[in-house]
Structure formats: C-alpha cells, structure tokens
C-alpha cells in the first residue's frame, strides 16, 4: 500500500456515502488486505456526515463501473478507489460507463463522483504510465493530476470539492509511490470548508426531486439496443445535447475554471499550501519552454529548475488537464516564447503525435488568446532518466529545440527497451489521427483510407483494436457502445437542425437577410457533405463578423462544429460476427439509422480450418442483406484498392445503415505486408473472401443491386451466391440447418473435384497397352520434368507403356496399384520439395497406412552440392530425392536401381549422373537389350522458331481455347517475342492445387518505350488499361519500359489493341531479338540529348522484327493459317537470335543506363559546344548467370572503337548480325554475346564487325562518368524547359493508403503538356514543363505527395526486379521485400551519419540480373526464400563488377555483416571515396577485373 493512495483513500472516506474499491482479480494481490484494513481502521472515526461510509470491493474483471449508475441516481456521494494493480485492467473498459455518467452531469446525476487512480511507475524510468488515462480524456470527466503523498492528499480533497461545486465528475490520478515526508492530515472541520454542507444539500435535493430511475433505465435500454419510446428518445436527445459541451474543448466554460480557481485559493487560505491549475517555473522571458503533464514535471523542476539559476528557458506543468482551456494555458506561457517542447508520459508512444501535443498545437492556433507568431512545437516522451544526468538531457533537448532543423519527435533520456512497449488505445473527437496511429500496423491501411476519403468529416465512434494472444478483441468498447455514441451524435445534430429551423421561422428573432439565406440553404443541404460545409462556413463567417445577440443564434454559433455532415463509423473486429443476433451489429442493421460499420476480419486463409466450422463470419454480410435496406460490401485492400475506395464512398453516401466487411489477414502483428498479401490473394482467389457490393439504392433505380467485383471466382461460389437468398432464408428459419447446408456444399465440391480427377486419370489409362511404368516428377524450373519426359520417350521406344505427370497430379489413393514407379525430383530452397510434389510428399511422409510392398521403384534426384556452401548445410544437397528414396523403402518398396543423383557441379551438370543411372534403370526393367533404340533428338528453341512460321505458332488457336487460362508451353515461348510472358500467381499455387484447380494463370505485358519517353496521353492510356485489364498497378521497368501485370488470357487481345491505339506496341519487348533501347532521359546534362533520342527511335525501328504475325494475331489485320504465306526477316532470319540482345546509350557524365551492362553500348561524345561528334562503342556486357555455375558469369562491355553519328545504326546492325551468326545456339546459358566474344577474343570480334561494315572503327574518345543515379527534383534543360524527377519506389505505380501515386500521376497527365520519361532506375521524370505551367504541376505534386524526396541516399539509389509472386524464375522476394530491408539498413546508416550518402543497392530474386545487381556497390541476389547472396564492391559509376562477399544470408545475417562495414566506412573513408571502392581498399573483397574473374574470390 502506498502513502499516496492511503492519503487519497482517507479523504474519500471522509466525504463519501459509498466507496468502491476495485481490486485486481489476482489471488497474489497484497493491496486488497492493506487498503481494506486501513479504511476499516477508520471506521471508529466518523466522516463529515457523522457516519461511516459503506465499503464494497469489486473485481476488476466484473464490469465494476456498471454498479455506479443506480447508486448515483439515488443521490449518493460516491468515491472509487483504483489501486495501481487494477488500473491497467479496468480503465479502458470503463469508458462506456464514464461517457454515460458525464452525459448525466448536467442533471447532477454523477456530479458527486470522484475516481482516485494510482498508476504504476515504469520500471525503467520511474515515472507513471499515463497511456490509459489519456484514453479517458474525451469522456467528459475532469482530469486532475497530483504527485507525492501530500499533494495527492490535497488534490483528493480539491477533487471532491470541484465535483460538488461544478457538477463535473473528476478523475484524480497520481503515481503509485511512497511519500518520504509526513502527510499532514485534515480534520473534518477543515474538510467541511471545501466540501460544504450547503453544496451537498443542494445536490441531494436536486436528485431526490427528479425522476431518480428514468435516466438510468434509459441508459441501459439504449445501451443494450432496446428500441426507445418517443418520450425516452426526447429525454435522451436532451441529455445528449447537454453533454456535448463536456466532451469538447472547454474554451468557453468560464464558470468551471472560475469555480475551480476559487477552490484552489480557498484551499490555500485554509492550509497555507498553494497550487495552480497550470504552474510555470523558470525565466518569465523564456524563448524556449517545456510543457508537460505529470510527475515528470516535478522531476525536472526538482533536479534542474530549482538547482540552478535558469535563463531564457522555462517549464510549464499542467495539473488540470480536462476540461481543457486554451485561454488558461496561454496566459501562463511567456509571450516571448519561440520554441516549445511537449513532453508526455505515454509509454510507449506508438502514435506519431501525443494527446497533449495536439492540444498545445491547437491552443496556439487560437487567435483569441495568442496574437503572436506561433512557436515551433515539437513532441517527445520520457525515456529512462538518471538524476545525475537530467540537466545534460534537458540541455540536449533545448539544443535540438533551438537548432535550425530540430527533430520533431524525441525521447528525453535513454530509449526504453522494446519489452516495455504495448498497444495504446484512444478515443477521438474530431481528429482521428490518434485512432489511426494507435491501431495495429497492418490495420492502418483501412483506417488511413477512411481519413483520406472523408478527411475532417470522419468521426470514429469507438476505440481502436488490439492484437492479443493471436486474436482480435475490442479493448475499449463493444459495437453497441459505438452504436450508442453515434446515436448521440445523430441526436446532437438533430437538435441543431431543430434549432436552426425554429430560428429561420421565428420572425421575432432579428436575423439578417444574409444569415437567413445561409441558414435556409444549410437546412436544405444539411445531408450533403459538400454543400453542408459550404453553407455552414457562410453561417460561421457571418456570425464571426457580426457576433450574435440572441441566445438561440449564439447557441447555433457554438454548435458550428456540427454544420458539416459527418462521416460516422464504428470500427469492429471479426469477433462481432460470431453472435450477430446478440451483439450490437444486429441493432445497427435493424435501426435504419445512417451509421456505417467497418468490420475488419483478420482470419488468415491458411488457418481457416482451425476455426469452428459451424461459425461463418461472412454470414454477417448475408444477414445484413436480408434486411433489404442495408448497404453491404465485402472488400480486401490488398486485392483491390479501387474496390475498397468505391465501397467506402458508396457506404457513406447510402442513406441508412452500411456494413463494410474488410479483409486483412495476419497471424501476428510481426507479419510482413508480403504475408498479408499472400493470404489475401488466397482468400479472394478461392472464393473464401469474395469481393462484392450490395446497394439497395440501385434496385430502386431499376439497376442490379448486387455487384460481384472478384476477378477470379470459383463456379461453385457463383452457384452459392445464386442460391444465397434461399439458403439464407432457410438457415434463418431453421438455424439447426446451418452446418448441414454449409457442409453439404463443401462435400459436393470436394466430391466433384475428386470425380473429375479420377475420370481424367482413368481416361489416361484407357489408351495404354503393355507393361506399365509410372514416372512422377517434382520440378520447379523444368529440369526434372525434362528428365522425366525423356524417360517416358525412352520407355515408349523400348515398348514400355509409360505415363508421366507431376507427383501432385496423381491420385495418391491409387499409388499402391502401380507396380513400377520412377521418381525424378529436383531440390528447392533449403532441401525442400518443389511445389508440384509437396502434397504427394506430405501424404507419403506422414502416413503409416500405405504399403509399397507390391511396387518396385527408382529415384533420381537433381541438386547442387555447392549451392549451400557451409559444412552444416550439406544435408540440403539432393535432400528430396534422398528422403523419398528412404521413405519408399521404409514403406516396403523394392528398389529397381540405387538412388541416382545429378549434381550441377559435375562437368556436364546433372547429365553426368543421369547418363550413369539411366542404363541401370532399363536393365532393371529388363528392356536394355530390345535392339537399337533411336530416341528423338532433343528439340531446341531454334526448332521451335523455325516451325512457328515467323512467330505465329498456334497462339491464335490458344487464345480461343476457353477451357484453360493458359497457353501451350511452346506458344508461351513465342509470345515472349510479342512482349507477353505467361505467368501464374505463385502465392496461390498450393491452394489452387489442393482445390483441384489449375494455376492462377495470368500474363505480363511489356510495352516498348524507346529511350523511355512517352506522351502524357500515352501515360493516361497505360493507366486506364492497367485499371481495366491488369492488377490496377503500372510497373516502370529497369529498362525504361512499361509493364502490365495480372492480365487474363481472355483480355490479352483487347489489351494489346488498346496499347497500339495509343501508338505504343509490345513487339520485341521480349524474346531473342533486340529489346527496348535505353537512353538517358534527362535533357539537363547535355545539349545533344534531343539528337541522341532521335537516334534511339531510328535504331529501335531499324532493329525491330518485320514479321506480320503480330498484327495478324493481335490486331486482326488478317489471319494466315499453316504455311500458305511466308514472311521474311531481313535481319533475323527464321531462327532470330541465339538469345536476347540489349542496347543502351549513355550521355556523359551520367551513366544511369549502366551502359557497360549491355550487349551493345554507345557513349555519346560531344565537343565543348555540345555538338555530337559520335559514339564510343562497347560490346559484350550482360548480367545473367547461374548460381554456383562458374561457366556462367556477368560481364561488362569492352570498348571496340568510335563511330560517327551517321555510322551508328550500321554498327549496331553488324554487331547484332555477328552475334546472330556466331552465338551459341546449343546452350542458352552460353548464348549471350559476352560468351561469343570470350570464346574467341575481342580483336576477332572487332575485325568481324569491321569486315561487314567495310570500314575501320576509330579509336575511342575520352569521356568521364560521374554517377549512375537519377537527378531528383526540378532541373532546367538546355531548352529552358523544366523537368521534375520523382521517386517511385521500385517503379511500382499504384495507389496505397497515404500514397495515391497512381491517382496523382493521372491528374497530372490530364493537364501536363510535356512528356513522361521513364528512368533507367525505375523512377519518373515529368519532362518539358514550361515556366508558366510549372506552378500548376508543383501544386499537383504537393497535393499527392509526389514531391516528397526526403529519403536517404541509400533508398534513393535502390532498385529491384519484380520477382515473386509472378516471375517463374524467382527464388526469393525482391520488389516486395527490398523496401523493408532498406528501412532496417537505414537505422544503421542513420547511426553512422551516412543518411545523405549515395550508395547503390540492388536486389534480384534470382541470379539472372534484371535489376543489374552485379554493378551495384551492395547487391542481394536471391537464392531461396528469405536467403540471399551478398555482393560488394561494384563501381558507383557502373564501371566495375562486384564480387561475392558472403553466401546464403538471411535478414539478421545481412544486417550483422553490413553494420560494421558501414560503420567503418563512415569513419575511415578517404575524401570522396565511394563505398564500392572502400570495401576493396579495406580488403573485404577483391576488385573484379572482368567477367571470367567474377567467381575468383
């Protein structure tokens, strides 16, 4: 028991009829007996009524505040004592009761209540935690703070006096500490001078004269959702209108403050101890001050302001925090103040701005009480403080405060360890910033959207949600509480409407014509969000300029915050859906009130089976739809941002109840956005969480009320929706049928899927003869499948009846019927099975009910013995093959041949092992001597090109096939030449397979943009196409092209047509041809830019394929079948190139295109007058390689000479033709130009090119590169036009909460008269902005936060490829993960002082090098999920390859490895030394001289 609490409790004893002590439910609590014992000992003493108060102990978990209402209505003087061990558990749950009590204060019911709360000190900094107290600040209670035993006793008495004299209930809070000095006690005579008998009598008489039960009955009836009678509603409306002044800023509540100041003065006269509502210490002419609330103020005052003479600084301590008064705060602030630091005891502060800070900022905006210039105000919290260092810490605080660029958020003292953090919850008034900031990180997107859409109109009635033990729970309120709050708000505004109506109609009230018009217009448009604000502002302006004289008009003016139609929301969790009928959800739905509910469902799709199958949370939507006049939407922000936006706006516009069911799945608050994205896609794709909108208003307009927004949805779900009304009505009338209906539907689907799978397999077996051989494979990238198909052909050639399929495609229940089994399996990740064999392995590895005793088997595994180089990781080598072989033996199988292992490290890769193993297999099957077997020659990509008839193939026929979302494998190779990649969403593979569905096939379309320059009209077209046919995002690539993702097969042709309509195309954006040509897009750096850009366009056209297949297939110019008409490719021929061919043009001093990383590079050379002289020519660059295959490597281009501008196109043609004729067509991993040159030499290549040119290239000219980064912000070109380069992280243009990038650029494109330039680093330049248009563009950039360049040098120089979930080659995340990793690295660079330093950092999900990682100073190349190889030492100008530093690192390893290197770089670098050069000089890695040297460590 603390002395502070004893002092407060004894005062409560003296002035109360009834004392409630709320104790923790813990049996270990020692406070229970202490406090009861102390107060029991007081019973021999009398209180001021000459009696003994009743003591009652309540449990903190039993809704203790519900006991108060009846007793308060009887006129009892009540005190509540909350010891520190109970306060954390009870305060938040008390809020609904506190709201109601404060609403009744006007009627004196509750005006006698005082709550004394002891707060625990934080163990790290020995100050009380006021987090939960701050959550009570809008309840209408007065909040009074004290510190120390004597002050706590004094404030306890003052609190009771305030409650009686003002009619405002009081929360008195203090730190739970021991008093070192003796507490001076009060006698009853002294107490009676403050708690006067006349006040008590007046209070009791008022209560007894009223209907003592009606208000309480009204509260419980409305609180539990019981419809109110007309009389009850009128009474409740009056109560709510009366309460509004208690819930808002009490700047005009002069009576309260006058009475309170008189109490403080009277207390001083009685005790000779002086206190103030707000205390100021320090220099009265201070320019810098601290404003704080709580015991921290006493700590600062004692250890600093009372120790030394202080000049020019001050300390302002807030003792009475609510009601809040701008006037009383500001009259205590020195008029000389320029800088203010607000310190708050909220631990931890997870909100960006703390409550006190927001109050202080608001106060200084009040021009009625502060006429000077508003000071700089920063926000902070207390950390761990030591008494001997407080003066130092405060000095540092004021140094920061007085600096030119002070930190806006700070910690006084040492930052607290993470173990002391917990969720902060908060109520809101008009500003929902706290609410949004207080919500779990992953919920914030929805809450930010609410704020973005509705702005200042947004009102969230209940609390934020908190994650606890894996489930959401509402910690502040229930839905019925939020419903009650919103009903009160509606009544409050209804009263204003009635008041304005009376004033407008009452001719006896002197109302000016302008005011009467404004009032009338407001009444007409009160429910229109825009017009209600317009006319409300007019009323406010009129009454501000001409202050009202009539009381009714004054009351209207005081209610000006109600003019704008609010957007009112209750936020809830999926837990509400478990008991719809018994919860407040039912009452909202059935009320007919204009109230919106946002219910966030967090159940991850992958854990859905763990939930009770008879509880269907989505039924809340169906339940609501059956009421008819209720708007319902089901949304998922990580599936469709636009759909969420439409749903929120439609819900708010709908006149009546609206329910928005929002999906945001996660297992814990530590989950990454990637996890949430994957879970969302699974749920939406499978139909578990359908996206739909139900708008009854549309039905009234003769339109379909139900809109299904899901792009993909199972037919079974569609059938379910078609049957929805019947099933729902059935379940409603006979609840016991609910599980039967659900289970029957699920069983029907599963039976159908199993039947289809078995039927397909039986059909397959129907055409077989001879001895059977089943070949099953597990393959990610095609190698294992290729081996399996070869075995099938070999078996067929030997007369063996062989079938081949993926392991997961085979019905596992039939596996033991097979007599001869062959398994071919590659290795994924860290010894994992490939995706198309995981379900098979899961079953085989876990069951004991299966026997292979009648089966013979053979296993061949594919792996890389050096992929995981650490000795302890050797177990991962060929682990799937080894595990499968051992498991089959354990289950009784008989080996046909010993386990075969293919190793990528062998001379011929896995072929070495396979060639030794295969003959043994045929021998074991007894077919090795069946004569000479002539196996089909391996089909090459060149065969495919020749047979395609110049890229036609069977693409057109495949587009017409509606039975699948995919094209054939061969056609997918051809569509690459057309700029189209077939992909599938890898996040959904496993789940779709489990449901018997094909992969979620979709297509990526790449649009060529030579030099990266496109028109504003083309940007708008790309934006529209991505919204209509893609995944709502636009990708800016590392090669200055557009990419569309998520296009379905049925939309391919129309998408390509629309692209061509805007004069762009996709031909040769991919494939074995010349790709999109890159060029520096910023005309700032050179006057030759326009001339070079013209060269880019001409070169691109010259090297483009000439086949007419593109126009035939996609644009329907004509359709040629078979071989009737032959095209002619003058440059490429029928086999095109051996591999892709890439060209880039650099304009010194900027090498943003990484010119050396391309097959062919041009470096523009100009004279001193900016005249283009020609180009240095480089050849043989390229980034791709294969992990642990030293025969593959990245390479930088080498100079072979100089050509004049009019020779440049011819040079490009001849370089490409030499590659066409000499490139390796037998091995695609060895087919790039870099290998063609390295297999011979550079001189040979130059001579071959020159022999075709007919002239010699000149010697290369001098040039200088200074960087390879983008020039951000505004720059002026040589033509006096402005260009603005903006940061687009990883090139992904998409709207996200708080980041409306796509919308902003769309609005800019509508007015921009210049062009849109895609940079080689995935960013965007608004080009050719005239001087007169610059201001308009600047305003739009600012409006959509697109002018934000306040990023670290590391982030500004980062780049990634797309990788997962769509790239089939990705081994790890890249685009989705790099921003997270950079954020963690930024913590390190901030500590090192490297925030502004430019360091190139790049990430790819595989070693193929799309983001040009091997020229970066720091590069991460994906090796497996969450695992990367770390490369260091690339040249900052793109002039040097990096080198492998460490292999197979996870995130913690990466941070651990880089931190000391970055620290050392900050301290030991030479002037101007780049990071890549530094790590080489310090010996972390060796410099890479050329590609062949890349693997030499």
Keywords:
50 helices; Rossmann fold; 50 strands; 7-stranded mixed β-sheet; alpha/beta; 4Fe-4S; about 1500 residues; iron
What does this structure look like?
Helix content is 39%, strand content 17%. By secondary structure, it is of the alpha/beta class. The strands form ten sheets. Strands 2-1-3-4-6-5-10 form a seven-stranded mixed beta sheet. A seven-stranded mixed beta sheet has the order 14-17-18-20-19-21-22, with helices on both faces. Helix 18 runs antiparallel to helix 19, helix 19 packs antiparallel against helix 20 and helix 48 packs parallel to helix 49. Strand 5, helix 6 and strand 6 form a beta-alpha-beta unit. Among the domains are: 245 residues, Thiamin diphosphate (ThDP)-binding fold, Pyr/PP domains (Rossmann fold, 3-Layer(aba) Sandwich), CATH 3.40.50; 145 residues, Rossmann fold (3-Layer(aba) Sandwich); 193 residues, Thiamin diphosphate (ThDP)-binding fold, Pyr/PP domains (Rossmann fold); 77 residues; 158 residues, Rossmann fold (3-Layer(aba) Sandwich); 66 residues, Sulfite Reductase Hemoprotein, domain 2 (Alpha-Beta Complex), CATH 3.90.480; 140 residues, Sulfite Reductase Hemoprotein, domain 1 (2-Layer Sandwich). The longest helix has 29 residues. It has 50 helices and 50 strands.
